[in-house]
Design goal:
The chain has four helices and two strands. The chain is mainly α.
Length: 170
């Protein structure tokens, strides 16, 4: 039987309190980013940093209206990942899913989705904040050289932790 022929059990598992907390925290960061940008809007110059290189230095500029693209992408990611979290039976797993392990594997995978959702929304929030700080020339020299390595460690670290737990809890 190939992976495409395998049908994973559909379980109606309630969202845990921790998943709910992560979801609310993600929504709080997203709304906070939009409000921050709205409050800073009148103080922004017409041209702002819209791209940063690998060292975190601004190397592309555009209209300040482009800054709203980041919260829009965050909102799309939030909606997409939140919707995806409700259907863990469609995910690919590092271990075969059986009736015996489906519940624990689904909950662990959902938690990963909630964590990644929070991490991505926070990432875009930080980029908005950095762009605003850079545009207002408040001592910000961009995002800093640590931004890219930290982002990669956080995202891939979350995935590695999940994979380790999922494989251990076959």
């Amino acid at each position: 039987m190939s992976a495409l022929d395998r049908v994973q059990p559909k379980l109606n598992l309630p969202i845990t309190g921790f998943e709910r907390f992560l979801n609310y925290l993600t929504l709080f960061v997203l709304i906070g980013t939009i409000l921050y940008l709205c409050f800073q809007w009148s103080d922004l110059p017409s041209t702002v940093a819209t791209h940063f290189n690998g060292k975190g230095e601004a190397d592309g500029w555009g209209s300040k209206g482009m800054l709203f693209l980041l919260p829009a992408i965050s909102l799309a990611l939030y909606i997409g990942l939140t919707t995806l979290s409700r259907h863990p039976y469609v995910y690919n797993y590092p271990v075969p899913i059986t009736e015996q392990n489906a519940a624990i594997q689904y909950v662990m995978a959902r938690k990963l989705i909630y964590w990644i959702n929070l991490e991505l929304v926070s990432l875009f929030s930080y980029i908005v904040w950095s762009s605003v700080q850079s545009a207002q020339d408040q001592g910000s020299d961009g995002m800093g050289a640590w931004f890219l390595p930290t982002t990669l460690v956080v995202l891939f670290g979350s995935i590695a932790i999940y994979l380790n737990r999922a494989i251990r809890r076959k």
